[in-house]
Write a structure and sequence with these properties.
With 377 residues, the chain is mainly alpha-helical. The chain has one domain. Helix content is 69%, strand content 6%. The chain contains 14 helices and 6 strands. Strand 1 and strand 2 form a beta hairpin. The longest helix is centred in the first third of the chain and has 37 residues.
């Protein structure tokens, strides 16, 4: 296989790994923020919940940065098209995330219930909205984005902000929220105790059932959804651009890869296995097992989307033949090679220090410990 072709496929896989890491680690923290007001009935319980993820939430943001950085460097035309066309959505995502560190840092500075309730709601918004947008973005990718290119590859986005939150996108967004709540509640069970533990287990149970139902409904919807088929790519020796290919839309086309390679059906099976077995683990007081199975479910969900869409990365609903694919949207061979070298060095370091941080700061968090620590959230 040509080295450049291999690098493109490798970076497509690595982008999927980064999105999975973002969903699992960042989603876990945001899941806690989403259910904070309901899983914690008292101020002490809410403080315990925040301090359970307190040592990790900011470090987990590295996955968000890595995901954006990988798209910028490995798939520059995808980055340029998405970030310019979806500018308002990106601002909504950033504004909702800006209040997140403020909520952690300022919530317990004053003891007044009004003050703390206001920051609790800000933590809810900064947990719910980003995960809803994350899932909705995946839902829109499956439907295609309304953009096209001029002859000089300047992209033009012809859609509206509200159109991005269509029924299918909202369904995908709610699936994302349900999975993030699942992961957050699993972490609360691992490090919480008493009533907090019991309520987290109840929320995990309901979120697992909701995710199973939404994933199933989404799969049925995709069967009747118009997918994309690459009919003809650029000729050999011709610049690989979106202007030199032929793409058509066809109902059920997102199932083509699964029909061609039946082994791919194991990927959505991972999502069902993770959610069903993880729910069983939580109900039988095995929260660590439930957490890992929840991570497996995220891998199955994102892997299913990737397996269905390959080689498409950003399909165009306005002009299907201008869709961005693995073959026409990547950086140069030299860039991909250098990036792979840095990834081989730094990715193991990130996994190591993340594992080390969770190991060092393991154990239960109690209200007594939180109230006795002047530096606690």
């Amino acid at each position: 296989m040509e080295i450049y072709l291999l690098l493109k496929v490798t970076w497509w896989i690595l982008l999927g790994v980064l999105l999975m890491g973002l969903a699992i680690m960042v989603g876990m923290d945001m899941g806690v923020g989403t259910v904070l007001r309901w899983v914690g009935r008292t101020d002490s319980e809410r403080r315990v919940a925040l301090n359970i993820i307190g040592p990790h939430w900011d470090g987990n943001q590295v996955w968000f940065i890595l995901g954006g950085g990988a798209i910028f460097a490995a798939w520059p035309i995808v980055y340029a098209t998405a970030f310019s066309g979806l500018y308002v959505v990106m601002l909504l995502l950033l504004w909702s995330m800006i209040v997140r560190p403020l909520g952690f840092e300022y919530r317990s500075k004053l003891k007044g219930p009004r003050w703390r309730n206001a920051w609790d709601w800000s933590l809810f918004v900064s947990g719910f909205v980003p995960m809803l947008v994350f899932g909705a973005a995946i839902g829109n990718a499956l439907q295609g984005f309304p953009f096209h290119f001029e002859w000089h590859l300047a992209s033009f986005y012809t859609g509206s902000f509200l159109a991005l939150f269509n029924p299918f996108a909202i369904l995908c967004g709610l699936l994302s929220v349900a999975l993030s709540v699942y992961m957050g509640c699993a972490m609360l069970m691992i490090r919480g105790e008493g009533e907090l533990y019991a309520r987290a287990r109840g929320f995990l149970d309901r979120s697992a059932l909701a995710a199973l139902a939404l994933f199933t409904l989404g799969g049925i919807w995709v069967v009747f959804l118009d997918g994309y088929q690459l009919v003809q790519g650029p000729a050999p020796g011709v610049a690989q651009t979106p202007l030199q290919q032929e793409v058509v839309r066809a109902s059920g086309a997102w199932l083509d890869n699964f029909l061609a390679m039946p082994l791919l059906w194991l990927v959505p099976g991972l999502a069902y296995l993770g959610l069903a077995a993880g729910r069983w683990g939580a109900l039988n007081d095995r929260p660590q097992l439930a957490w890992w199975l929840g991570a497996l479910a995220w891998i199955g969900v994102i892997g299913t989307v990737g397996a269905a869409m390959f080689p498409f990365m950003m399909p165009s609903s306005a002009e299907p033949s201008h869709s961005l694919t693995v073959w026409n949207a990547s950086s140069s061979e030299y860039t991909l090679m250098w990036m792979l070298g840095f990834t081989v060095v730094f990715m193991p370091l990130i996994l190591w220090y993340t594992s080390w941080a969770f190991w060092v700061m393991r154990g239960k968090v109690s209200a007594k410990h939180v109230e006795a620590d002047d530096h606690a959230y």
